[in-house]
Amino acid sequence: MTVLVTGGAGYIGGHMALALLDQGEEVVVLDNLSTGFAWAVPPAAKLIVGDFGDSALVDQIFADHRIDAIAHFAAKIVVPESVSDPLAYYLNNTAKARNLLECAVKAGVKQFIFSSTAAVYGEPAENPVFENVALAPINPYGRSKLMVEWMLADVAAAHQLRYVVLRYFNVAGADPAGRLGQSSPVATHLIKVAVQAALGHRDGLDVFGTDYPTPDGSCVRDYIQVTDLVDAHLLALAHLRAGGGSLTCNCGYGRGLSVLEVVEVVKKVSGVDFEVRLKGRRPGDPASLVAGADRVRQELGWTPKHDNLAEIVEQALSWERRLHNRKAG
Ligand code: UDP
């Protein structure tokens, strides 16, 4: 059988495509290359350049391939951009996901893995935050993803489709074998920005907010390494294929690090004391988000292998160097 990976030319989807191929699966990648790259898709996967919201195209893909599962990564993911352009997020992340689900139901695809986000929690009353708390996203990005979670629950109740929703905390790092990493044309995520600053590919780093109710005043996040995150998807696929029920799991390590702590680790690992400017808050940012990560371990048997920020930063640095040389060459 074949797995359809939407967004497989992007950061996390690309690592998923690699991991699926590594375990002998057939992979079809559907990606419109808006932020992904054709070169990031492993040659053994079939790349179809197009939009997952294009129902005629998706119908055709289901007709042409024996797809038993969809891993849906394609999305817009930048919180401040979702604040300034919410309709783009509701179109891309929500409305088009509805089309994809409709095609899946029509074609009888019964297994769906969805990339959700810790942003569905908004500003949680307590951290770590567990899956069963009331959800109250504070930005359009989180709301655009939460609506898909709701759609999935309703679709699963009405049709023969089961799902695993994985709520990602902050994803970082790169394939330990160096085959892939985060290649987004415009870097906005903290570790990517910090390694670019360390390598002199950008002029220092702005810290957005130092007056949050956190130990050092900067925001606290739970940074999870990308292949550890992909492992959770492989386990989710195995769970669904074994007939397992629908499930929603946080994906994080259960420990928080502040922006200032992350910056210190990037400085230490890189050996570069780049400029850090303390700035005001960025719209849409909650103060703290740390995963209650028991369920993914218990229900899917997940065991992380790279729970170490220095290692994650080292991976990000070495990918960034490679990416830079590729562009220079
Ligand atoms: N951040 C920062 N400077 C940057 C990029 C991010 O201070 O150049 C902060 C951001 O305000 C947030 C944290 O780092 O508090 C994580 O942001 P990121 O964009 O990496 O992920 P998000 O949590 O928004 O998904």
UniProtKB/TrEMBL annotation:
Enzyme Commission no: 5.1.3.2
Highest taxon in the source lineage: Bacteria
Annotated organism of origin: Methylocella silvestris (strain DSM 15510 / CIP 108128 / LMG 27833 / NCIMB 13906 / BL2)
The reaction(s) this protein catalyses: UDP-alpha-D-glucose = UDP-alpha-D-galactose
Keywords: Carbohydrate metabolism, Isomerase, NAD
GO MF terms, alphabetically ordered: UDP-glucose 4-epimerase activity
Protein name (Swiss-Prot/TrEMBL): UDP-glucose 4-epimerase
UniProt cross-references to Pfam families, sorted A to Z: Epimerase (PF01370)
Domain NAD-dependent epimerase/dehydratase: 3-252
SUPFAM superfamilies for this protein: NAD(P)-binding Rossmann-fold domains
